[in-house]
């Protein structure tokens, strides 16, 4: 419909808002119907269809506009808005704990009144014009002008009715369909009529339809101007009249058409008046009978009729609009009591029942525009609901801003809304890097472990001919030191951004190196037990045990290699972006691929360590000045304690701390093995060289054997 008429303009203001951007100078406009709330939705309707204009004196501020002639149809639209708001307020699922209020203004079907109502909706009733006007989002239920689709000019305008871009073309095709190639045209002299008719003429001429004349009128035109337009229509030879008119212009034109008794025309109407019930009378049918046009789709609104029938002056006795409506509906003068009646006038007291009244207000058989009002209110409610949810939700939603628009959207998976939810930004990427403090510290411990292991290996190599080193089984000692070096180094594969190769390497390298380490410890434990089972004191390890040690180390390690190979072939670990654990962070980690494979690797290492612990525990009391089984027992106690503690810590640790826990377990168990097994030997080699003799090492056993 019109840009400034029949428009539901929705101005959203928070309760108690005092900031004013601007308003029109002059007498303030006040809403005819209002209710307070946490959020206020404003509406402007042509509740009255006529306006009394006073010529300005230019010596004082303009007076308030005086509107007359109550339009029951528009009053129903306003009540439909109130019904929708009350219905939303009663719903716990929509805008919970938030009440919606309303301010309904009368645009009087006038551009001037519509503008004043709009200003009052946006900025209140304060009389100031010192600031720049701010835009508010408008949702129209009846504004069809195609010009409003221009997003550059009207960036914050939305509607629940189709644009005239489609209606104008459809009307041209309708005229062509019936073979009417010679037509007259009349339009409202405003953007609605001018834009709609311009499109119609353009398409009609392309379809081979000729326009005899095209006249423009306004509801505020003088009677003489309207009469001249009717004279053109009357003298024209075209028997088809396309009337792209707003309801107000249709009323004044129809009044003059009937007055001049212009009949015999085939009317083609726009959506604003073609379904108006008040025109479907016997008196008007002799002029408009057979009119065709396109209608707005109708619908049913459950509960609306019951709500309309409850409208009563008693709801707000001081409200002049409710009083005027009641007097018009019952053709009476409203008085507080029946005793005030006189003989010559009909009086009423508000106790009358609307159920028996049949007029445009109570007629809900074809809800077209009312349905658009209803949908517009719900559109606003859902938009507010989503906006508020956007600002309070912990999820990654952001509020984008494009008769100044906002849209709350969910950010892409790898994005997160900024602090004030105004835009989507890339989520922070988290992984254990070499540059951060934790990564640096763990790297330092890893390299320290490698350095100490290499130092021990060099010392053993330097003192390789001493009795203590020989008694420690040189081959297994170097192999164990080599495996410990790999254990320390494999922890470095867990640091840094996960890649396809690093994910596969970190777990398999860890599994194989620790299996090799435990295999060496197991072989050493067996060697210790066998060494002290020999009958002759001081006898070296039987030669047959050396191949057995090598074979046991090989097969124990090879079995772990098989497990890791199957894991990599069937379901290898892969890089994974974890976006579910934290809403504002992407955690880069390695997906295990197969949890069975991971726990099989870990379980096999556990099995080897348990076997080592049992054998070392049984051999802990073997006679010797240097009982290695005792130190192996201590090392395995530390090893088992670390990895038993690791399991719950690994499962419960978030993000990069999961990796840190795993690295800590690797380093702690590696240091435990290195210190417990090799520290006593290094102590004797470096600080107690007098004990590094065959006699001292085997002395206790020799004495007891004698």
TrEMBL record:
InterPro entries: ANF_lig-bd_rcpt, GPCR_3, GPCR_3_C, GPCR_3_Ca_sens_rcpt-rel, GPCR_3_CS, Peripla_BP_I. This is Olfactory receptor C family, h1. Its main location: membrane. Keywords: Cell membrane, G-protein coupled receptor, Glycoprotein, Membrane, Receptor, Signal, Transducer, Transmembrane, Transmembrane helix. It comes from the Eukaryota. It comes from Cyprinus carpio (Common carp). GO terms for cellular component: plasma membrane. GO terms for molecular function: G protein-coupled receptor activity. It is found in: Cell membrane.
